[in-house]
Amino acid sequence: MNSQRQSPIYRSRLLQPASERAPETHPLTWRLRDDGKVVDLADYEAKEGYRAVRQVLNEHDPQSVIAAMKEANVRGRGGAGFSAGLKWSLTMQGGDMPRGYIVCNADEMEPGTFKDRLLMEQQPHLLIEGMILSAFANNARYGYIFLRGEYVESARVLSQALAEARNAGWLGPDIAGSGFDFDIALHTGAGRYICGEETALLNSLEGKRANPRAKPPFPGQSGAWGKPTVVNNVETLCNAPAVLLRGADWYQGLSGDRTDDGGTKLYGASGLVNRPGLWELPIGVTGREILDRAGGLRDGRNLKAWLPGGASTGFLLPEHLDLPLDFDTVGKEGSRLGTGLMTVVAEDQSMVSLLRNLEAFFARESCGWCTPCRDGLPWTVKLLMALERGEGETGDVELLDKLAADCGPGLTFCAHAPGAAMPLQTALRHFRHEFEQGVRSPEGRARGEPISVGEA
Amino acid sequence: MMEPTPSSQTITTDGFRLHPEDEAAMREEAGHYEQRQAACIEALKIVQRRHGWVPDGAIPAIARVLGVGPASVEGVATFYSLIFRQPVGRHVILVCDSSSCFLTGFDQLLNALTERLGIGLGETTADGRFTLLPVCCLGACDGAPALMIDDDVYGPVGADDLPTVLEGYS
What we know:
heterodimer, A: alpha/beta, de novo design (two linked rop proteins), B: two-stranded antiparallel ribbon, metal-binding (chain B)
């Protein structure tokens, strides 16, 4: 009976019990509680919390912190995979340079991605500690957590944790008696995927429309309000405390022989799998291992394709399941590791319909700044809708090729358009026949005619 | 970090009266940033929390508090999807239409919702109870298909769950 049903309230969770997680092997999640409650300040401090801050701020200098991050090869977990240590080494510092900002990109909106939510909702102090370390390395005077507006629970937990940290002296003047001062404010957004692009994020932080900025100058040279600014993803920052406490060698060793990338990663799976979820695993595990943990596909379905790390990554096939999921290997297969949370596509799913869904997302979320993205993506959606109905015309599939190519890297201000192009191009490559089946009349007129402009 | 802000009487613009508490909250928020303009999104949210949406007259009022032109405030108000520039229902349902939800039953969920509420995406029920909107991936893909009502996230939500889920919102 309906009245007996429980409301399916969503709770973020990790599918590994505490008994399987240790400080030496699970730097991101070993402190998490099995009951899913927040690791508060007392709990965090009892589990090595803020030890890295005390040690580093008092005994190290910023350059050694940057060197450790570089050596550990912590690659950006927001999806781009850029070395965090290298990014930090490029921040303008010293001389007449004003102290700048650390901005945590907590605008998790990549379709298929639900990892930063877990870290923020259950272990906010790890992020705060990571931001303090990043601030020390980059000589930042202030930090912002740019949190997407829909993450209401994250906002509640983070606000409380920031207050706890401030009361305990981990934020504010003279942190841990080191003379270093730094504080953090929570900035909540109001929607729009594009805010996750780091320069659009800075415009949004400044209270403007979230259009991307030209690079260079990079944020490390001129970011928020023209000051040197480091923008790092939540998970990236959460790696810093363990790297500095246990060392770059240990961190590198976590991934073993699988890959040159260091550390662990929050991997996950969603779509029609039996146990969608999240796991902290050594970076470089295979898609098969993740799919196994997710219990395979529902109802005995076969795997058709998968996105390794969100909507803006390229489709991989079942034959790619045994590749190590690191940034370089996945890149060589014409995709990207992205956020590392795989979206699983079952054999009975129409790729044309799925692409229509994906491209409608990218079209809606385009900020409208660059023409190929603003005008090309809605056109792409129109073509896909026609193909989906079996009403496509000759030349439509080739036109999709062209529209996707026009969105390629370097043709627009930011990575939104290339992100929209990658799943489309890989789907057209692997499943072209499905798109061609949507073409109704071989004699029909292609939709490639120029659009008239400025005529009455 | 706070810039000097002008002391003011109650701001009234185009028939809109900015609540003094809201103005104070905006000024406090502005103190977190190098420039007051940065509080623009939060200022819009402050107005929205009180009125349910952002009425026209609020735009020049916020502009005055933040020391920017009304056009830049309106530009921001119309850019962000969670700022409502027209009245919405007492509760806003955000249905995730991104890939993982699409693969796990978004179409059926949306159909069940539109049938039950008698409205489509972007519309408000005649009794003013619900507004239905699509939303970018809610980050609840392990609970797909997911939706959010006001501050609460639900997932996985089947059509059968809707009566229970919706009854909590009057």
